[in-house]
Amino acid sequence: MSKFKLAVIGTVVVFALLAIIVIISNKQTPEETTIEKKEVDLTGQPLLGQESAPVTVVEFGDYKCPSCKAWGETVYPKLVEDYILSGDVKFSYVNVLFHGNESILGAMAAESVYKQDPNVYWDFHKALFDAQPAANHDGLWITMDKILELADKIPSINLEQLKQDVEQELTMKQVNIDKDLYTKHHVSQTPTVNINGVAMEDPFDYEAIKEAIDRELKDDENE
Ligand code: CA
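Output (C-alpha cells, whole complex):
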C-alpha cells in the first residue's frame, strides 16, 4: 500500500472515531426539557372556589364537545370534592369555539348569564352540558329555544336580556376575549386542562392532575 493510501485511510479512521465520540457525548447530555409556565389571565372569567386558593385550574372547553361533557361528569366532580371545597384550588372555564355556530351560541349565552348573575353561572353551565345529547351530539341542539328553556329553570336569569344578548351578539366581546385567550395558550383540543399555567397532557388522567396540584401546593408551602 502506498503512503498516500495509508494517509487517506488513517484520516478517514480518525474522522470516524471523532464522529462516534461526538455522537456518544451528545447522547450522554440530553437537552433538559423545561416546561414553561404561562399563567392564564382570568380577568372577567367565572371563578369557582375561593379566590385566595393557591392553585388555579382552567378548563378550556366547548359546549358542543362530547369529551368536555364527559370530563365534566367524571374528572370535574373529583376535583371539586378533593381540592375546590377545601380551598386549595380555584376553577375557571374558558369558552373554545371549535364547533362553529353552536359553540358561539352556547358561549354567548353563558357569558350573558355570567354577566347577569355570576352566582348562577355554574348552574347554567352544567345545564347546558347536561342538555348535550349522548347520541347525535353533532346534530343541531344548541338553539335559542334550548337556551331559553334551560335558563327558565334558573330564577335570577332575565330571559329577555339573555335573548337580546345572544340574538344581537351583545356578549360577543366576552366570547372574543376567550378566543384570544385560547389562541394565546395554543389550545388545539378540548377539553384542555391547565394547572397553574401548564397544560396537562391527558385531561382524563386524574392521578396526573392530582400529582400536578399536589406539587403546586407543596411549592406554595415552601415559598
Ligand atoms: Ca369567558
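The chain has a mean pLDDT of 92.
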